């Protein structure tokens, strides 16, 4: 086997040492003449940003002259050289940010106990933490819905919010943006993005890494940034660079004219499918060509937001005239704007999309004709499975017929036409396969885009005027990206019409996409279960894995905001919008989608009159309760032993063994195990190990909150590891968070089995297939297995970021050699595994795994 990482060490051990000595000889090595090298003009603009950072940070220690030369000679060194990169800032959201801040608080305790000044533990890199993932929908379709949800959020998350406020006071270089301000990406776009930084006499490009995989959204404004895990973010916060392989850069040339009916989400899903097919995993994608000028800044950020869905590292749109026009409408001063423009043009980080003479050299070029993109949705289980809207009805019927898999549900023919009656608020309704029960216009992907949001609002207006309604049992919600969105929806006069259809503003933050939605009415859930129905959710987000929105909703589709509203009105995805009406007016006349769909001219007219520069300056309101919130005033955090949200993690007390002797397999998994499977973010099931722990602390199910909200408590998160209801464990043969305790032959919760193994001193491994750890960047997907006692994961392939997290936590990511897997080696998973790991080794070094089957020894060398 090949060990696919450069080192294995105790978590955080290298970070404290970095704080003791600062080796910075930047002036000695700084050589600005590199920017005038003829090779510079051939570099992709995203690589030029990496080069500038390397030159500015070149100190002979973290960044060497060799690193600068490797980047300058990118054409020859791409995909070979490892380079360091110092981002200008770090972006945290609260679900992934709280573990990082809890770790820093624990570091202060650790150094204080060793007689070291805890003030050494402070981020060196400016860090912004946006509290946006705490939003949970308790109320909808009520007056003052957002206010009610905000009040519940404060009650439910008081301990977490107090900890965040302590962080803002105790740590230098940490800024906390309170809840109800906006989603992390919207705040990043509107308020935190600088394009160029002006610090210490230097003017240089704004760059960022964030603990959310969709940090790439900022690439749409010409700012280089991408998602990292909490472990990597902590290293950057404490002054270490990000290490990355000098990437391939795929030039994505956009040509053709956009269809008048296509929205940004249609373009996004179309480009996602093209890039997914082009295999751009782990590469930089840089957009150029005449088609780029047709995309607004909001369109570009929407496209860049979906970067993780086609597995690229970044999706970079260089700054051009469209970008400059956007920033003139934001909170940039004239002086700041002038410095930005002059600097970008001086260092050739500004380009004209129409000037082909400026086209740099790319590793490869792919071309996408925007004219070929038609309105579409994506689903029912994966964002890359694009479905043209005219084909939606037929495609859903095919999904019912197909075997269970990425698209299929395998519903018998005789059961496909079943309808189930139920009562809701005294009225009888009917559900069938394809019935929409969740319709959410949510924050992350689209709500930054005025055109699609106004299209949804104008569609709602016309629908209400035509006498159309949404059935009351459908869980509808509107979670704007920020107060700016609410402002222009209100100013344009469309917000009341969205409200009349049930799309009330429920708050500002990450909601339905991560499972933070209110439970469906019990009568709806009972009807779905009674008929074994494939019920549907439609949302304008970016993630929709099966069971993520709600465990009884099996089919979920990503769609543009106006299509979310349209499907909510029809109440089913089984409709052909071109041939079938979406409803009837009070006179019984058929109303078709084309009758209520606003023209581009209507949308543009409203946008010009409502989305104005003043809007960008009105966000910071409604935060009085944050100012009044009490928080500890101490250098060290006073851990509360009774807290079920915040606990001092045990990482500094746990030794990491080098070699692995006679390990059992905790799990035997297949392909595409996501971080959602490993460490769920949604609601805590009442029959789970985490629920039993919380009940032992005298909490009721209503007080459980979500796994994401409790990432500051290792006791909950360890119990929640592999707690996904969609986990496919070959030991069990069906979905669910169970595994086989091999010595006893008992089927147990994963946590209970791991607890027994640890009690008996038995190390653990995991067997898996391809793309282990794909999905969101989530450090608990590595921390959780580590605390369960897992010491190695043996898989056919890994998602790169997750592999790095495993290494950071002392778990060895071992990859089967090409052509080999558990089946080809005839492993049943019940063997004992011994792995000898040398103290010093190199990336891709082959290791021997000895396998013992029951009482017989096999000399199986995985070489």
From TrEMBL:
Top enzyme category: lyase
GO biological processes: tricarboxylic acid metabolic process
Occurrences of domain Aconitase/3-isopropylmalate dehydratase large subunit alpha/beta/alpha (ranges): 74-571
Gene source species: Astyanax mexicanus
Family: Belongs to the aconitase/IPM isomerase family.
Any GO molecular function: 4 iron, 4 sulfur cluster binding
EC number in record: 4.2.1.3
Protein's UniProt name: Cytoplasmic aconitate hydratase
InterPro entries noted in UniProt: AcnA_IRP_Swivel, Acnase/IPM_dHydase_lsu_aba_1/3, Acoase/IPM_deHydtase_lsu_aba, Aconitase/3IPM_dehydase_swvl, Aconitase/IRP2, Aconitase_4Fe-4S_BS, Aconitase_4Fe-4S_dom, AconitaseA/IPMdHydase_ssu_swvl
């Amino acid at each position: 086997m090949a060990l696919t990482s450069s080192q294995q060490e105790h978590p955080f051990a290298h970070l404290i040492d970095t704080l003791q000595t600062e080796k910075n000889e930047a002036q000695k090595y700084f050589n600005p003449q590199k920017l005038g090298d003829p090779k510079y003009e051939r570099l992709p603009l995203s690589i030029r940003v990496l080069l500038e950072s390397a030159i500015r940070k070149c100190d002979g220690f973290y960044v060497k002259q060799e690193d600068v030369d490797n980047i300058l000679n990118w054409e020859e060194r791409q995909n070979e050289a490892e380079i360091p990169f110092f981002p200008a800032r770090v972006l945290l959201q609260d679900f992934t940010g709280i573990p990082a801040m809890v770790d820093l608080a624990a570091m202060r305790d650790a150094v204080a106990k060793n007689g070291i000044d805890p003030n050494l533990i402070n981020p060196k890199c400016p860090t912004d933490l946006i509290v946006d993932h705490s939003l949970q929908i308790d109320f909808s379709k009520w007056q003052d819905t957002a206010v009610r949800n905000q009040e519940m959020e404060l009650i439910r998350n008081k301990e977490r919010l107090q900890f965040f406020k302590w962080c803002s006071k105790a740590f230098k270089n940490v800024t906390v943006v309170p809840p109800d301000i906006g989603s992390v990406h919207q705040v990043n776009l509107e308020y935190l993005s600088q394009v160029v930084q002006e610090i210490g006499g230097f003017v240089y490009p704004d760059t960022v890494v964030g603990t959310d995989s969709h940090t790439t959204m900022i690439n749409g404004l010409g700012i280089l940034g991408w998602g990292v895990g909490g472990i990597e973010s902590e290293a950057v916060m404490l002054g270490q660079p990000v290490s990355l392989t000098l990437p391939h850069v795929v030039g994505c040339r956009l040509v053709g004219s956009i269809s008048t009916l296509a929205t940004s989400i249609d373009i996004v899903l179309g480009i996602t499918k093209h890039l997914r097919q082009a295999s751009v995993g782990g590469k930089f994608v840089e957009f150029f060509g005449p088609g780029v000028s047709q995309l607004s800044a909001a369109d570009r950020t929407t496209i860049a937001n979906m970067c993780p869905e086609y597995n690229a590292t970044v999706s970079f749109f260089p700054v051009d005239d469209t970008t400059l026009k956007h920033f003139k409408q934001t909170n940039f001063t004239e002086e700041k704007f002038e410095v930005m423009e002059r600097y970008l043009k001086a260092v050739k980080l500004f380009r004209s999309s129409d000037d082909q003479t400026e086209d740099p050299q790319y590793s490869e070029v792919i071309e996408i004709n925007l004219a070929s993109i038609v309105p579409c949705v994506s689903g029912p289980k994966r964002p890359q499975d694009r479905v043209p809207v005219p084909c939606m009805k037929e495609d859903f019927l095919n999904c019912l017929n197909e075997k269970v898999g990425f698209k299929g549900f395998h519903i018998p023919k005789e059961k496909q036409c079943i309808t189930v009656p139920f009562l809701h608020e005294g009225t009888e309704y009917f559900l069938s396969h394809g019935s929409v029960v969740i319709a959410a216009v949510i924050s992350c992907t689209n709500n930054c885009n005025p055109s699609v949001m106004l299209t949804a609002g104008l569609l709602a207006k016309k629908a209400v005027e035509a006498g159309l309604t949404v059935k009351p049992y459908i869980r509808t919600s509107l979670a704007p990206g920020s107060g700016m969105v609410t402002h222009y929806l209100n100013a344009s006069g469309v917000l009341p019409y969205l409200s009349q259809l049930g799309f009330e503003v429920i708050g500002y933050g990450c909601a339905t996409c991560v499972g933070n939605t209110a439970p469906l009415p019990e009568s709806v859930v009972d009807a779905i279960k009674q008929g074994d129905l494939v019920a549907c959710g439609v949302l304008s987000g970016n993630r929709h894995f099966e069971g993520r929105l709600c465990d009884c909703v099996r089919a979920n589709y990503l769609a543009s905001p106006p299509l979310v509203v349209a499907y909510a009105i029809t109440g089913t995805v089984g409709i052909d919008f071109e041939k079938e009406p979406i409803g009837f007016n009070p006179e019984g006349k058929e109303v078709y989608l084309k009758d209520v769909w606003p023209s581009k001219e209507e949308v543009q007219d409203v946008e010009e009159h409502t989305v104005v520069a003043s809007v960008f300056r009105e966000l910071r309101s409604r935060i009085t309760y944050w100012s009044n919130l009490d928080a500890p005033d101490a250098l060290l955090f006073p851990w509360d032993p009774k807290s079920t949200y915040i606990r001092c993690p045990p990482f500094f007390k746990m030794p990491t063994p080098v070699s692995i002797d006679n390990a059992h397999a905790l799990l035997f998994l297949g392909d595409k195990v996501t971080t959602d499977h490993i460490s769920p973010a949604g609601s805590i099931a009442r029959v789970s190990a985490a629920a039993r722990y919380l009940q032992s602390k005298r909490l009721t199910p209503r007080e459980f909150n979500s796994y994401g909200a409790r990432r500051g408590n290792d006791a909950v998160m360890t119990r929640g590891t592999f707690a996904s209801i969609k986990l496919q464990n070959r030991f069990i043969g069906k979905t669910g968070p169970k595994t086989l305790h091999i010595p006893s032959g008992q089927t147990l919760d994963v946590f209970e089995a791991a607890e027994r193994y640890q009690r008996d001193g038995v190390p653990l491994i995991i067997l898996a297939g391809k793309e282990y750890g794909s999905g969101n960047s989530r450090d608990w997907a590595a921390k959780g297995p580590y605390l369960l006692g897992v010491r190695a994961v043996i898989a056919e392939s890994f998602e790169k970021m997750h592999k790095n997290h495993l290494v950071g936590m002392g778990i060895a990511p071992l990859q089967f050699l090409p052509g080999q897997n558990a089946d080809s080696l005839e492993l049943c998973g019940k063997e004992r595994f011994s792995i000898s790991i040398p103290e010093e080794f190199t990336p891709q070094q082959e290791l021997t795994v000895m396998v013992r089957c029951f009482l017989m020894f096999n000399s199986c060398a995985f070489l």
